[in-house]
Amino acid sequence: MGEPTRFGIMGCAGIARKVSRAIKLSPNATVVAIGSRNAEKAHRFIKDNGLPENTQVHGSYESLLDDPDVDAVHMPLPTSLHLRWGVAAATKGKHILLEKPTALCVAELDQILQACEVNNVQFMDGTMWMHHPRTAKMNELLRQQHSDLFGQLRMVNSIASFYAKPDFLHNNIRVMPDLDSLGALGDLGWYCIRFILWAADYCLPTTAVAFPNPVKNEAGLLLSCGASLHWENGTVATFHCSFLAHRTFEVAVVGSKGTLTLSDFVNPFDENSARFTFASESSFKELVDGWKPSLPTNHVVSTELPQEACMISEFSRLVGAIKDGSKPEKKWPSISRKNQIVMDAVKDSIDKESKPVEIVG
Question: Which ranges of the chain would DSSP assign to H, the alpha helix?
Answer without folding.
Answer: 14-25, 39-48, 61-65, 82-91, 106-118, 133-142, 147-150, 166-171, 183-184, 190-199, 307-323, 331-351
